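Submission checklist for the structure archive. All mandatory fields must be present; incomplete records are returned to the submitter.

[x] Identifier: Crp/Fnr family transcriptional regulator
[x] Organism: Actinoallomurus acaciae
[x] Residue count: 236
[x] Sequence attached
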Amino acid sequence: MPQGNWPKDTFLHRLREPLRTKILQLGVRRTYPPGHVLLRQGTPGESVWVLVDALVKVSAQTQNGREALLAIRVSGDVVGEMGALDGSPRSATVTTCGRAVVFQVRGAVFIDFIRRHPEAALTLSQMAVERLRWANQRRLDFTGYGTDVCLARVLIDLAGRHGTRKDDGLDIGVSLTQTELGGMVGAKEVTVQKALRGLSGLGLVQPGHRHVLITDMRGLVRFADLDPRDVPPKPY
């Protein structure tokens, strides 16, 4: 059974033993290559996936045909629980960003696990509330700030959750195209390119191919109109 120091605030990190082991024992271990679609928007929610060693992107297609990147999920997280809990079709598509080791738990089995273990149900509810707050904050950002500030805030959030320290800065830790970054801030690719050039010109970030290096976190926090105390702690 996999063991590990699960990233902070993930589902497995919050669960106490033996619940962590128990939820994994209920599933089937599967390994997938990069670019594999775990869940597809609009399909039935028949399974829940526990990410053991994985990084995935959660995206959805809008009514005008554009794809919006909604979130990033990492090892220790759970995806697909919404469809299993309410029986609705999938509201988003989940795609692996690299080789992924996951446990597939049948929806009915997951629901029974939640019913029998109130601690797990409370953990799931707390995570749902936090994700809703995150989404609400992004909507407020879109209303009150321009693309460059919205992008700065998203980069800070990604770095705090997934970032890795480098000699010359803090890598956000997630491989994303500029189109995908645009999906997270509600902007077109050309607008994101312009915003990144501006942030780079200020010495705050260093854009690269499918990655962004934050070279001045405190400066980026000031640019994003955040409190200096919002500088994320050392990434896990």
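[x] Structure attached
Curator remark: The radius of gyration is 18 Å. The chain has a mean pLDDT of 86.
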